[in-house]
Write a structure and sequence with these properties.
Shape: elongated
Order of helices and strands: HHEEEEEEHHH
Strand content: 15-25%
Structural class: alpha+beta
Helix content: 40-55%
Mean pLDDT: 77
Radius of gyration: 35 Å
């Protein structure tokens, strides 16, 4: 029986390591719980939103926020809340940062004047590159005269 207890204690020691804080007879170390700060911030944000009397807006599929460096913060299926009294809109969701040209066909209706100028410049660059490619295809020299004139000589 004594060997069984020793074997069991050795197995526990091998499995869990040294969990004793001090010497013989002291308490064992408790599991350290890691608290996330984000949860507290989220609670504060939700309580503040509740104070403003926000109402949720349904049927919003996506939100796009345009930045000055011609990138877009894209939120798919966000939670949106609005307060008429405070004139405040809260959008929550998982953001993705994308380039304007990656979202091209769908985003044309939403762009502002600055993004429109950027897209116009991109299109000009693409058409300029296309014209250069067409100009490079003319490696064959121009024909001088006709074949009949060359045959008579």
């Amino acid at each position: 029986m004594d060997n069984e207890v020793k074997d069991a204690r050795e197995k526990l020691k091998a499995r869990f390591g040294n969990t004793q804080i001090g010497g013989k007879g002291t308490q064992r170390r408790t599991k350290k719980v890691v608290h996330h700060q984000e949860v507290n911030e989220d609670k504060k944000l939700k309580s503040t939103i509740k104070k403003f009397g926000m109402q949720t807006l349904q049927d919003i599929d996506e939100v796009n926020m345009f930045k000055d460096d011609n990138t877009v913060i894209h939120l798919r299926k966000p939670q949106t809340q609005f307060s008429v009294r405070e004139n405040m809109l809260v959008v929550t969701g998982t953001p993705e940062t994308k380039e304007i040209k990656d979202m091209m066909p769908d985003i044309l209706k939403q762009v502002g004047p600055q993004q429109y100028q950027y897209l116009k410049g991109q299109m000009a660059e693409l058409s300029g590159a296309k014209n250069e490619a067409e100009a490079d295809d003319d490696d064959v020299p121009e024909l001088v005269g006709t074949f009949e004139d060359a045959g008579k000589k």
